[in-house]
Amino acid sequence: MKKISLIIVIACISITFLLNVAMPEFAGKMKHNISSMNILYSYSVTKTFSEQTHDTIEMASVPSGKTETRDADFRIDVKLEGTPLNIKSVVKEHLNKPQAYKTKEKLTGPEKGFSNRTYYLTKNYDKGRYTVIRTNKITGKEKVYAGNYYEPSTQDPIVKWSRDEK
Fold first, then answer.
1. pTM score > 0.70 for this model?
2. Is residue 19 scored above 70 in pLDDT?
């Protein structure tokens, strides 16, 4: 019996070594798939919303009487604070999906009496705390993880606006 166990351990170590050295990209995919299939652990995730935050991007400042064409291409991604690598994908599965924004716009200067019109994009985030309880399916042992999350807001994730300046 000990001989069979030793052979299995040696075979597992050999396969792991071959995957990591010979085909590292395949080994990375396997590790991700194994964790996402929840073979060894089960996860319980709860999140608590606390406030909406935002990042504002200045797209352009157009002088009076002028016109400009601008491209905007960006994404609003989930941001996590205090999250160990081994549970990042689990937490991200329970948050809002990233929001992509791509546009090509013709921006015009302000009416007479103003010198510039400044165009902005505001990316809105829902901020809160998450708690993950990871339970080992074999031993039943639990481990608790907690941290902060920022996810694309469910209401108005991206807002376009402008301001005229004298």
1. no
2. no
Q: Where are the beta strands (DSSP E) in the chain?
A: 41-63, 67-76, 79-81, 99-108, 116-136, 142-152, 158-165
**CA–CA distance, 6 with 106 (Å, rounded to integer):** 69
Exposed, middle or buried: residue 78 (CB in 10 Å: 0-12, 13-18, 19+)? middle
Which pLDDT score is estimated for 4? Answer: 67
Would you say 130 and 85 are in contact if contact means Cβ atoms under 8 Å apart?
no
* All residues at 6 or more sequence positions from 97 whose CB lies less than 8 Å from its CB, including other chains: 152
Query: Alpha-carbon distance 151 to 52, whole Å?
Result: 10
The dihedral sign for the CA sequence 17, 23, 28, 34? negative
